[in-house]
Hints:
The protein is mainly beta. The chain has 1 helix and 3 strands; from the N terminus they run βββα.
Amino acid sequence: xxxxxxxxxxxxxxxxxxxxxxxxxxxxxxxxxxxxxxxxxxxxxxxxxxxxxxxxxxxxxxxxxxxx
Length: 68
């Protein structure tokens, strides 16, 4: 298992969203299953919620008990 950090800029269209030029960063986890010293399976999981918040697709206002 390992963690990964992804960094970049939004200089091109992504799934219909216009580029903003903003820097983005989000984290993920990679898991490998190894049998006899060979990788036989791998999975990657990324924090797309954070990614979409940074792109402005999702607006996070906080938990209900935190919002005035």
